């Protein structure tokens, strides 16, 4: 392979954008970390009514958890259908395209839909439940695509072994393929949660309010969340103090830890799956 | 069981269909009032109850174009660098960081843009307010680079090794191989990734609402990136809270939602077609 000096220069130039991206990332992390000085255990556990963040943090986790419980099973079953059952025809093609299109719908449009459909048409109101359903719509494509990949990685011999013993197709898939693909599936759900944890536009008019008295007592009550409160504090209240950095840092940490767990799990299992083959 | 699985899979179709149906239903009032003017009217003004989306469409497109102008060169060269130059041992790590960049929520991008980039733009160009189309383009470009890098990176990495080896065998250098073999094969995939990035830029709401200035007016001259602009999603997010349900404003906001839905639907469908033709093409070749 011939590589002259000029090419070395070309390739180094090509690397500059990557360095810019890396620098941008670390600069953002550094900037947010300056918010740590404003944080204390007391602030995090104190009620929002007394200037704390307790309900926002728990509210964010409530929203995430509920959306994952809805989108997780539906997404995984959809992925099983697409990988193991779907005939190679027109309808499958349309389903495939619909999933891509759903992933591309801007979150603010999903939010509009959540408001008119879940909150008003079905009558769930501005509530945690409306937020779960709206966020689940955004999570679904991520879970489907991730689970598809996880299921495709499992060698067919796994389920064939069960089929050979006389198990039904679904029994073989659920007991062999799905249990082998389980770590990959969990990863895709966690990744989906990371993607929607900071989602603001979709919950703006569907489930959040600026202040509540304590945590929601039922899924039909509105909820507070970090992303929503950040947005309102900055744009409506006009707050610019260091406390905002603290809130942003907590939101960032929640999301990044989800994303990191997912990425590490995925890298680990991809490598292990390669061994399986 | 197969039926249950099928229903889960067709959920996405149902969701898309319901979305379109309900957004159209709520937007119908404004549509019947303004007709095509709702889409192409020049004035968007709550005070006089006139709703024409052209200034917002302009804002979305100019910010999207600005973001692409920055993100395409940065994103594509990053993708090439990761796939072709970076040693295998650090590749996963770098890809993970790019992916983390994608998971930073838009409200944080908006906040950082507002705290640092808005004042910087104001200082550099001597403006009263740094909340301009340029600022929004800068913030958006960082947000869509991961989309472009992720997808074009996958496409570039999937170029069959034999093709590259054939090129090396003919005495081509690595640079020539990338330019004459790798890029031509993956150009459709790269195009699709750019389209998806554009779709994301057009739909981005919160970050843009925080840094673009939100003035629903077409700048003079229109290519002036240093004027404040409003975009379709940012206006929806900012006005939806105040609009009374059933009012003309409320309905007009759903009209905006419809425009956004249609634009992103077209972009995604085109990107899908481009990717598919790319797959077919490389199999034939």
Describe the structure.
The complex is a heterodimer of chains A (277) and B (285). With 277 residues, chain A is an all-alpha fold. Chain A has one domain (39-276): MetI-like (MetI-like fold). Chain A has helices at residues 5-33, 41-45, 54-85, 90-104, 107-121, 128-152, 157-164, 169-197, 201-204, 226-237, 242-276. The radius of gyration of chain A is 22 Å and the shape is globular. In chain A, 49% of the residues are buried. Chain B has 285 residues and is an all-alpha fold. Chain B has a two-stranded antiparallel ribbon with strand order 1-2. Chain B is globular. Chain B has a single domain (51-284), classed as MetI-like (MetI-like fold). Classes of the chains: A mainly alpha (277), B mainly alpha (285). Chains A and B meet through helix 1, helix 3, helix 4, helix 5 and helix 6 of A and helix 1, helix 3, helix 4, helix 5 and helix 6 of B.
CATH architecture of chain B: Orthogonal Bundle
Low-confidence stretches of chain B: none
Helix-residue proportion of chain A = over 70%
Tell me about the biggest sheet of chain A? none
The CATH class designation of chain A is Mainly Alpha
- Total strand segments of chain A: 0
Structural class of chain B: mainly alpha
- Poorly predicted regions of chain A are none
Structural class of chain A, by secondary structure, is: mainly alpha
Give the termini distance of chain B in whole angstroms: 41 Å
Write the layout of secondary structure elements.
The complex is a heterodimer of chains A (277) and B (285).
Chain A (H helix, E strand, L loop, with lengths): L4 H29 L7 H5 L8 H32 L4 H15 L2 H15 L6 H25 L4 H8 L4 H29 L3 H4 L21 H12 L4 H35 L1
Chain B lengths: L1 H33 L2 H4 L3 E2 L4 E2 L2 H32 L2 H16 L2 H20 L7 H25 L3 H9 L4 H30 L2 H6 L20 H8 L8 H37 L1
Antiparallel strand pairs in B: 1-2
Helix pairs in contact in B: 1-11, 3-6, 3-8, 4-6, 5-6, 6-8, 7-8, 8-11, 10-11
